[in-house]
Amino acid sequence: MSRSDRSTRAMHQALPPALREAVDDFAEHLSRVRNRSTHTVRAYVTDLVSLFDHAVRMGCVDLAELDLSVLRSWLARQRTTGAARTSLARRAASARAFSAWAHRAGLLSADVGAALASPRAHRELPSVLRADQAAALVDGPTRRVRPTDAPPTDLPDTHGAPTNPARTGPAAGPTSGEAAVPLRDRVLLELLYATGVRVSEACGLDVGDVDHGRRVIRVFGKGGRERSVPYGVPAQRALDDWLRRGRPAMVGTHSGDALLLGARGGRLNPTTARQIVGAYAEAAGLPRTSPHGLRHSAATHLLEGGADLRAVQELLGHSSLSSTQIYTHVSVERLRAAYRQAHPRA
Asked: 211 pairs with which residues across the strands?
């Protein structure tokens, strides 16, 4: 448990029982009814505990006493302590979401957070790789561009499986466990760039989620929303190699149906996947790159190639078109840069 988590837990325990119960009930609503992820629920709880801690300091010990002035005072205090605009916007959204839920649940006589304004978060344009840079990164496992031929040191698998004794020597499959790692890395990089899926979505794929005939993967995104995402021929070749020669060498008793496996046979850990992407990018001499950077690059390259914005929204799993529109700005900026570099009167 991190220091911030311990601090949040301590403040939570110090809250009056009525406020503490409201936080717990809201967290259960987010998890069970809204089907939010564990990370999202934790962020909401952290914001609410901070809000109620501030409210108690102002003399508000009952939920019915929560009003707009308390919410505004809390945000003002966050700003004076150096919170970024994006953090303030998120915390205001947390307060509004709780207020709306509490009003519907009959805990508040009015939705006091409905009138709460928040600073508009400044959205920086994501950095993206050029098409040739993305190709060099994805081809890294094939060309062995790692600083050494040794596979990366994986974190514990998602299931924390013990090492499978059957895999300490040469694997029973067509290749050794160590030689299977580049095949795993290659299919991970191909899928991230070919589909633009989130790293958690890629690591959550099962073997049965791949439709080889239609070259489509079934993805479960945020909020449990399901979508189908196509992939190309290079990703299909990587999948075929991995499933035929790589996965059988790394599979263990805790593998289950997981498509991508970690060093100990369990489902590949997203943190390990981030390390894999970063290692290949560094070895290829590319800018610092993450799986989300590949997602940004895939979306930008799709739009530059003429893809419809709505289609890209569906591929990425964005619930709002505004989340996808940022990639149109990226394309315009790249166009401007090319113009300034090439045009004699730029």
From this structure: 216
Q: Which of 198, 254, 264, 296 is catalytic?
A: 198
Residue 69 and residue 78: Cα distance in Å, rounded? 14
Active site residue 340: no
pLDDT in tens, 244-288: 999 999 998 889 999 999 988 899 999 999 999 999 999 999 999
- Burial of 71-108, coded b for 16+ CB within 10 Å and e otherwise, reads bebbbeebeeeebeeeebbbbbbbbbbbbebbbeeebb
Measured over the CA atoms of residue 182, residue 184, residue 265 and residue 247, the dihedral's sign is negative
From 12, 247, 295, 301, active-site residue: 295
- First-to-last alpha carbon distance for the chain, in angstroms, is 54
Catalytic residue, candidates 77, 159, 222, 274: 222
Catalytic residue among 218, 227, 318, 334: 318
**Secondary structure (3-state) at 197:** coil
Told to judge if 198 belongs to the known catalytic residues of this protein, a careful annotator would answer: yes
Q: Where are the domains of the chain?
A: 3-104, 132-291
Mean pLDDT value across residues 59-73: 92
Structure tokens at 164: 């499978």
| Residue 20 annotated as catalytic | no
Examine the pLDDT at 237 and tell me if it is beyond 50: yes
Does the annotation mark 9 as catalytic?
A: no
CATH 1.10.443.10: does it fit domain 132-291?
Answer: yes
As a whole number of angstroms, the distance between CA 199 and CA 219 comes to: 11
Q: Kindly report which listed range (9-13, 51-55, 103-107, 119-123) carries the lowest average pLDDT score.
A: 119-123
Does residue 292 have an active-site annotation?
Answer: yes
Candidates 79, 159, 218, 292; catalytic one: 292
Q: Based on the residue annotation, tell me whether 222 is a catalytic residue of this protein.
A: yes
Whether this model's pTM surpasses 0.85: no
**CB distance 180 to 212 below 8 Å:** no
